[in-house]
Design brief:
Chain lengths: ~240, ~525
């Protein structure tokens, strides 16, 4: 707790405002969250469960998307093969774009699920022998002070990027009002799907990603406090399979 | 080297110093066990703040990040990742590897060390079909390891051969390593696949030679299989033979449709009569060999043909592979049923494409995609920072000033990758060091063929990372399925001779770039 306060003070003194807004604000927010964590654990716990519900939902969609990627790509191959014998170009640009967009969608909405399931690899040279508390401390500190700020910075960058993708003019006006599907960004080549939506999903994916990291912070926070009943820690004994 | 390093640090600009510290902090951070992907982003963010405060980095540069991420998402090369992983996940469930192991093990069992050589052959076939390491190692560990132990094989030889040949999946195309290297180095995936083919087969030939050679010199290490174990119960009836021959002929005919549709009918008829003749004259073992080898070969040929005939892009050929794997799984079930009706004892027919299996395949695909892409997203921020702070220039200055031109650079790069490989895994290494190598390669004027040569060397080197104790994924996979009498130290020691063979292959490939170049020109037609 004392360390936390010190870091917040340091952050207030230095803070790089252009990057993620005022860095110190985030640190003070974290400090405040820690106080709430002490006072109202049950509320935070429910908040985390809420986030994880979203994560489960997007995760289960992502887990079926692989088959969709296969179907789209396979249709492309079949179309190209048939097109050769009916001497007509059956394959349309839209399907080609759809293949990578399905793939992109799969990853972007699966990113938060990946955090929860721990698919991102760790070097468990020393990690494997750490106690639960120690693991929780490492994750808690790193997530709060470095990784979450990164996601906040990413979202701040993605916010204008995605809005321009959806058709917002640089002057700040929306040419077609709320009917953004009339104005969203088209692919530079002809006969392609619009790329605006996937740019919007980029932002949504990162927002969900940030939420899940927040959930992880709460979870590790509970572990540090010794409230493992609220942290549902499950051991990962076998290393992740990288195929 | 150390002297230049120290002098370099002392004479460094502040920004370069920051870049180097960033790299150092990152390496320390991942050693503590924090997520590798998150370590990339966290370190980069911390140094972005420091850079902003010291005036060496302009945070506005970060606005190029969404564009880079978008490019990564719309990259056709990376589309291959979900498709080939899905294909591997289906093949893992199909029961084909089991079939191949039984059949080829019995075929080669009469030789000393024959079962070990059979493991390499099966490993190579599966490698050419899938590009998935875990599946092959686990299946072979479950089936071949107990069989070899029963025969009295040396534990170290038995475990080593399984680890090494299972890992071939990452060298023989298609493979995840090659896909990621192609993406990071900016070479064509097709060219890299072509270039890696002969080097991959060379490694597999080395393993076979080693297994047979050492068992010949020291018979107690790899005894031959007694005759009574090399026969299968049952004999396929005529009706079964006709059905199997027809099914396989149709499969071959379907693949030949890709090559020349006009002759597909002739091909089907000819192969039907040839297969029928073989099946009617041979016994159960012959049948087993035919029904296990022919479909796998057809899958490999089908995937390659779809690329070379221009029907599919290299990435889309993964979709052809998924389709083929589904067909093969159904065929396998059909053959199981036919043969077990004819009294075969070694198989139990089982429908394997259950809903839960399909879901599991989708899950492992999502897992790998999320893993690779999260790492890619985070590392692209890291390499942006590293570049902006001038670290890339400094690194390529150092790498190009090693002396010895391209060979000097390659030697340093290979030693670095090998050292990192002891503790890190291939994905991390690919994302950490390749972005550092690329500017140096440009400065040294690597042609595209030389880039492929370098990528193949990297792939062989990363193969070593897979099996090098104490941290290697293949080791973990085998440990998880090995019987208790196999000590972990046996597995670790068993990997060493194969690492020596890989080093040998690496040196040969480095000294004779012609091997890779020939492979590239021959198979890609360039």
């Amino acid at each position: 707790m004392a360390g936390f306060t010190c870091l917040s003070l340091v952050a207030t003194a230095t803070g790089s405002e252009r990057l993620i807004g005022n860095l110190a604000v985030w640190h003070w927010a974290a400090l405040l969250a820690l106080l709430v964590l002490n006072a109202r654990p049950a509320a935070l716990h429910r908040f985390r469960l809420g986030i994880e519900k979203i994560t489960s939902a997007t995760g289960s969609v992502a887990r079926w998307m692989g088959w969709l990627v296969f179907l789209v790509s396979f249709v492309n191959v079949v179309a190209r093969y048939t097109g050769r014998y009916v001497e007509r170009d059956i394959i349309i640009g839209q399907m080609m774009t759809l293949a990578w967009m399905t793939f992109a969608f799969m990853f972007l909405i699966g990113m938060n699920y990946g955090v929860r399931e721990g698919v991102n690899p760790r070097i468990d040279f020393w990690w494997a022998n750490f106690s639960r508390r120690r693991k929780a401390w490492l994750d808690f500190v790193m997530h709060t002070f470095f990784f979450l700020p990164f996601i906040i910075a990413a979202n701040r960058i993605l916010w204008p990027y995605s809005r321009i993708g959806l058709g917002r003019k640089r002057s700040g006006t929306w040419p077609t009002g709320w009917r953004f599907w009339q104005s969203w960004e088209q692919h530079p080549d002809a006969d392609q799907l619009p790329v605006g939506p996937i740019k919007a999903v980029l932002l949504i994916g990162f927002l969900l990603f940030g939420l899940q990291v927040l959930a992880e912070i709460i979870k590790t926070g509970f572990t540090i406090m010794g409230r493992e009943d609220l942290a549902d820690v499950h051991e990962q004994d076998a290393p992740m399979r990288i195929e | 080297m150390g002297g230049t390093l120290v002098l370099g640090i002392l004479g460094m600009e502040l920004n370069v110093f920051l870049a180097m510290s960033m790299f150092l902090v990152f390496m320390l951070l991942i050693l503590t066990g924090y997520n590798v992907a998150f370590s990339f982003a966290s370190t980069a963010l911390a140094f972005a703040v420091i850079g902003d405060l010291t005036g060496t980095f302009d945070p506005l540069t970060m606005n190029v990040l969404p564009g880079r991420w978008y490019v990564a998402l719309s990259d056709q090369t990376l589309l291959a990742v979900p498709l080939f992983v899905l294909m591997g996940a289906i093949l893992e469930k199909s029961g084909l590897a089991e079939r191949l192991l039984t059949a080829i093990g019995m075929l080669m069992g009469s030789l000393r060390g024959g079962v070990a050589a059979a493991v390499v052959v099966v490993g190579t076939l599966m490698a050419a079909a899938t590009g998935v390491v875990a599946a092959t190692v686990i299946v072979m560990g479950l089936l071949s390891l107990p069989a070899m132990l029963k025969l009295g094989y040396d534990h170290k030889l038995a475990t080593g051969v399984i680890i090494a040949s299972g890992t071939l999946a990452q060298l023989v195309p298609p493979s995840l390593v090659l896909i990621l290297l192609a993406q990071q180095l900016g070479v064509g995936i097709l060219g890299l696949f072509a270039g890696a083919l002969i080097p991959g087969l060379m490694c597999s030939a080395l393993y076979i030679a080693y297994a047979l050679g050492i068992s010949h010199l020291r018979p107690e290490m790899g005894p031959a299989m007694p005759k009574e174990q090399r026969t299968l119960v049952g004999r396929p009836s005529r009706k079964t033979a006709v059905k199997i021959a027809l099914a396989l002929a149709l499969l071959i005919g379907a693949v030949s449709l890709l090559l020349s549709p006009g002759s597909a009918l002739v091909v089907t008829l000819v192969t039907f009569s040839v297969l029928l003749a073989i099946l009617l004259t041979g016994g159960m073992l012959t049948t087993e060999i035919v029904v296990s080898v022919v479909p796998v070969l057809m899958l490999i040929v089908g995937v390659l043909m779809s690329i070379f005939q221009g029907v599919a892009t290299p990435s889309e050929s993964g979709a052809v592979g998924v389709f083929g794997a589904l067909i093969l799984t159904c065929l396998n079930w059909y053959f199981d049923r036919l043969l077990s009706r004819d009294g075969a004892q070694h198989i139990t027919p089982r429908w394997r494409l259950t809903l839960s299996a399909i879901h599991a395949a989708g899950t492992s695909t999502a897992n790998i995609v999320v893993l690779v892409m999260t790492l890619l997203f985070c590392s692209s921020f890291f390499s942006l920072m590293f570049f902006q702070l001038g670290g890339s220039d400094q690194m390529s200055d150092w790498l190009t000033s090693v002396g010895g031109g391209k060979f000097g650079f390659v030697a340093v790069a290979m030693v670095a990758v090998f050292l990192l490989g002891i503790n890190l895994e291939f994905i991390e290494i690919t994302f950490i060091v390749v972005p550092i190598f690329v500017p140096a390669m440009q400065e040294l004027g690597f042609s595209s063929v030389e880039k492929i040569w370098f990528a193949v060397l990297m792939a062989v080197n990363l193969n070593m990372a897979f099996i090098s104790p104490p941290v290697g994924f293949s080791l973990f996979y085998l440990q998880s399925v090995a019987p208790p009498e196999v000590k972990t130290s046996d597995i670790h020691l068993g990997a060493l001779p194969f690492m020596a063979l890989q080093t040998f292959a690496l040196v040969v490939l480095a000294v004779f770039p012609g091997i890779t170049e020939f492979s590239f020109r021959f198979f890609s037609g360039a």
